[in-house]
Amino acid sequence: MSNESNVLNSVLSETLKVIRDTSADGDSKLVPEDYSNVLNSVVGETLQLIRDTAAKGEWKLVPEEHGVVTYVGQGIARVKGLPHVESEELVQFEGNALGIAFNLDPDEVGVVLLDESTMIESGSQVRRTNRVLDVPVGESLLGRVVDPVGRPLDDIGPLNAQRRALVECDAPAIMDRAPVDVPLATGTKVVDALIPVGRGQRELILGDRQTGKTALAVDCVLNQKDKNVICVYCAIGQRSSSVAGVIADLRKRQAMPYSIVVVAGGDAPPGLQYTAPYAAMAMGEYFMRQGRDALVIFDDLSCHARAYRELSLLLRRPPGRESFPGDIFYIHSRLLERSTHLRKELGGGSLTALPIVATEEQNISAYIPTNLISITDGQIYLTPGLFQKGILPAVDVGKSVSRVGGEAQLAAYRAVAGDLRLFYSQFEELEVFSRFGSRLDERTRRTLARGRAVREALKQAQYDPLSPSEQIVVLLSATEGLFDDIPSERVAEASARLRQLLPERLPSLLESIEANQKLTASEREAVVKLAREVIHSVWTPPSQ
Ligand SMILES: Nc1ncnc2c1ncn2[C@@H]1O[C@H](COP(=O)(O)OP(=O)(O)OP(=O)(O)O)[C@@H](O)[C@H]1O
Ligand SMILES: [Mg+2]
Q1: Cβ(374) – ligand 1 distance below 6 Å
Q2: Which of 481, 492, 483, 469 is nearest to 536 (CA)?
Q3: What is the pLDDT of residues 272-324, one digit of tens each?
Q4: Residue 250: which residues within 8 A CB-CB, separation 6 or more?
Q5: d(CA 446, CA 318)
Q6: How far is the CA of 243 from the centre of ligand 2 (A)?
Q7: pLDDT attached to residue 419
Q8: Which residues of 128-147 are buried (b: 16+ CB within 10 A; e: fewer)?
């Protein structure tokens, strides 16, 4: 009935307005009796319309289930009276705050809040929504900063997304997957040469606080410019200043047009932090299913695990090791299993995941890091020791590995990377031992000099990604021993000069490397010749 009276009211006011406007024009011949005639007929017609519709049975009674909040805590609420609510269903509180039904107990429902708990009162009503959480996906998100529910956090305006996708969905079946065979160029020499990542791979970045984890991942995003890879950066539980820094870097270096930033800051409700990586994954997945390549960065999953632990403890789930709930492994594996390379018949798209995890006191065998190491296809380990020595990026080559990316690496890398890994690990060991001995034989001395030269060549500044050919030329110069005798501070200068001269002096080499061809003997010679010339121009050996 209330609907009927609303319709009637609006019809009446519209009609009166039309009548008044007509009489105001001056050419109206309506007198007050006509007013009531017109009104009567309009009301009659409207009522008839409403009755007809009702008679056709198009008006249905939809039962709505309402519950009552019995307890509100930091990030969770308990609700009585939603007997048919389903697991993970979205529920809505008075004032439009959202929550997810997590614990379904016989007499109450434990709800994880996606909005501040201060918006919810004990005793207020909760409504079922009959749907699970979904987020807007698609092209319109590119260049945007959103929260894990898809609400814009930037000041560009509404999203206007045409499509939505479920936040949680099944990982592609094994038969839908193809081997990883296309490289994902990170632009960082030490990674691309020694720990190569392929499109569709999951590579963990782990290390202590402030060791350059975010910097490495952001550099990878910067390197995807003009490479047709969509990047999703998902910040979970990070400091606002750090997230703002990343967004500013992406904007400044023109990476936003192909990127999406999903933010659940450290001050966001734990429920939002918990859903953030799944939402980011759903956004990346959309592009994968369109046959495109996407990269998703989770910064970082230790904060995600902590947010989940907080929720679980508040919801009184039994705590296990380090107080994490029993399904902590499952929440990360079901997330990372969604990243893959799809078969050609399904579009051949890929979704690469770079989860980040923070270690404490370099303990990579702590609970969450070991879990993630076992879920991913390899790890890039950053250490504070190397960082403090200024060896940046501070990648510990000995403890880093890529289990699938080798197949995808460009053929030309084999010329430099083949023995480099082994040599470099041996050099690091030798360096530690050589500290104790004062007299070294000539062979050891040469190995140490070569190792130091390679280490210098592997160093790389932030925001300076290199193309594969630039990387190969610099590393080849180092492994051929050309940097052995020059002072280490001159290596960076020589490398920069080499990179500068490359397009002009060896254009055919660039083409063949990009075309995934092996380096021929004559190409190697040409590189060595150019490197000699460059070294000569930046440094002359002191006369004996
Ligand atoms: N290759 C590099 N060259 C120079 N500086 C770098 C390099 N990589 C990282 N840095 C600097 O190191 C600092 C720490 O980097 P970053 O914030 O990426 O570390 P993090 O491991 O993500 O830290 P947190 O644990 O706090 O998230 C930053 O100031 C960054 O600019
Ligand atoms: Mg960081």
Answers
A1: no
A2: 483
A3: 999 999 999 999 999 999 999 999 999 999 999 999 999 999 999 999 999 99
A4: 218, 221, 222, 233, 256, 259, 261
A5: 59
A6: 9
A7: 80
A8: beeebbbbbbbeebbbbbbb
Report pLDDT for 40.
82
| E-only strand ranges, 64-171 | 66-72, 76-80, 89-93, 98-104, 109-113, 125-132, 134-137, 145-146, 163-166
Q: What is the average pLDDT across 189-212? A: 96
Query: Domains of the chain, with CATH numbers?
Result: 2-55 (no CATH), 66-132 (2.40.30.20), 173-409 (3.40.50.300), 414-538 (1.20.150.20)
The Cα–Cα gap between 291 and 289 comes to 5
| 3-class state of residue 504 by DSSP | helix
Q: What is the mean pLDDT of residues 371-385?
A: 96
Active site residues: 403
Angle of CA points 330, 331, 333, to nearest 5°: 60
Q: Please report the pLDDT score of residue 1 as a whole number.
A: 47
Q: Find out whether the beta carbon of 189 lies less than 6 Å from any atom of ligand 1.
A: no
Atom of ligand 1 nearest to the CA of 387: 12
**pLDDT at residue 5 tops 70:** no
Cα–Cα distance measured from residue 233 to residue 225, given in angstroms and rounded to the nearest whole number = 15
- Pocket lining: 214 vs ligand 1, CB cutoff 6 Å: yes
Q: Which residues surround ligand 2, an ion (CB under 5 A)?
A: 214
Q: φ, ψ for residue 362 (rounded to 5)?
A: 55, 25
Q: Which amino acid is at 378?
A: G
